[in-house]
Structures are given as structure tokens and as C-alpha cells.
Amino acid sequence: MSDPLLKIVGLRKHFGAVRACHNLSLEICTGETHALIGPNGAGKTTLLNLLSGDLKPDAGQIFLDNRDITRVPLYHRAHLGLARSYQITSIFPQLSVEENLLLAIQAHSGHSFRFWKKAVSDPQLRRELEPALERVGLEHRARDRAAALSHGEKKQLEVGMALACNPRVLFLDEPMAGMGPGGSVELGKLIAGLKQQMTIVLVEHDVEAIFSLADRITVLVYGEIVVTGTADEIRSSAAVREAYLGEEEPC
Ligand SMILES: Nc1ncnc2c1ncn2[C@@H]1O[C@H](COP(=O)(O)OP(=O)(O)OP(=O)(O)O)[C@@H](O)[C@H]1O
């Protein structure tokens, strides 16, 4: 395994009596696809929120390339190369697919939102549009309103928007949620392609997808790590079986 790109040390986030993240330490290596799994309420989304900067921890530290980013605000983390696609779609339904992507490209290129009108015709931004559309397989939908996309295509667009800042680390929160089998196959292919280009931290309930996509998997229960390992190690782990007691398969 290569050097850690993200290092999490003693991270803690409690909500009253709920220990959503409890003294958690973990290293995410450069280039790996790392999945977070665990039963409902295990703290997967909380950990993603802490890493992306959506939440502030009560204690602990997060390092990116040995730099302490624990107190770095959300918007600044994007400039450092951390990007996130959310569980709930964050696209603009009334805008076209290309307008959504242009907006994301513009936001990350340092331009002000006040100049949005210019973005559609800005040749420099438009040059970045074609590869951005291709990257998520939405060239044929460029002029369609985002509201008209299928659920899977919306997810593809959302990932495309997160990719606009050319991230080093992409956080994906349940990308397959609400997707039919066809949609998850498409999105699985998209993520498999991205795997070669960046580090990915993925929260997902689709076990098949996780086992085929993830290089390593961390199992969380009650805000703590039960085990981290490869798909084979997770499958054969007695600790995981115990953590999921009563459940046939990890979810
Ligand atoms: N903003 C909040 N305020 C209070 N409690 C919260 C908040 N966010 C999360 N929690 C609690 O923290 C615990 C962990 O929640 P979290 O959403 O991180 O779990 P999860 O593993 O992502 O669950 P799921 O698989 O159901 O999405 C849960 O008990 C949840 O109710």
C-alpha cells in the first residue's frame, strides 16, 4: 500500500449521547478506493462529513499530505483537492446539464458567481466542458434540462460537478442509492474509471458494488472501526460477522 494521502487521528464527533464518530483513526492511501460500510447509524456519513468539512469534529485531527486540515473550512478543502458528491442530489434542476457543469467549472476556476451569465459563452470554460461531459458519459444530454434526466444520469451529473475541481480525493455518499440495476451498472463503470485517476472514499450499501470497486473496506459500528481490510479479509472476518449479528450480509 502507498503512503497515506489522508490520515485521520483520534477523530471524535458526538451528538449528545450518540457517539457518531468515536476516537477514530484511519489512513487512506494515495490512489486507493476505500469504502466505509456498517449498519444504519454506524457513523459512515458523519465520517464523510468530517472529512469533507461539512462537520467540525469535537476532537482529533485530519491530515492531507501531512498537512493538518482539521480546521480548514469546506470551501477551502475543495481548493486543496477534496470534492464531494452528496447523498441528496445537489444539481440545479431548471438548468441544462451543460449549464450545471459550467457553473461547477466556473466556481472552481475562481470566477465569481456574479459572472454566471458570461460562463455559458466563456470560451475558456467551454473548453473544459467537453471533457467534463465525456468523463461522466453525458455528452448526448448536454442541452437537456437536469430535471429531465433519469435518477442515474442525475447521479452522473452530480459526480461530474464534483469532478470539476479536478480533485485528488473524491467522497461519494451512497452513489447507488435509489438506482435500478441498469443505473448502478453504469455508475459502477464510471467509478471504476475514476479509480485509476484519483483516491476515492465511498459510502455505499450495495455490497456487490463495494466488493468489486473497493481496494480496502472499513467496517464501522457505533462510530468505531471494527476492521479495515480487503474484500476477502472483510468477507472472512469473524469480527465483521459478529458486528452484523442477525444480518446475513454487511450493508
Ligand atoms: N446532525 C445530527 N444530529 C444528531 N444526531 C445525528 C446527526 N447526524 C447523525 N446523527 C446520529 O449519528 C449516528 C450516525 O449517523 P450517520 O448518518 O453518520 O450514520 P450512517 O452510518 O451514515 O447511517 P445510514 O447508513 O443510515 O445512512 C446516528 O445515530 C444518527 O442518528
From TrEMBL:
Coiled coil: none annotated. Residues 6-247 form the ABC transporter domain. GO terms for molecular function: ATP binding; ATP hydrolysis activity. One of its GO terms (cellular component) is plasma membrane. Keywords: ATP-binding, Nucleotide-binding, Transport. It holds the Pfam family BCA_ABC_TP_C. This is ABC transporter ATP-binding protein. It comes from Pelovirga terrestris.
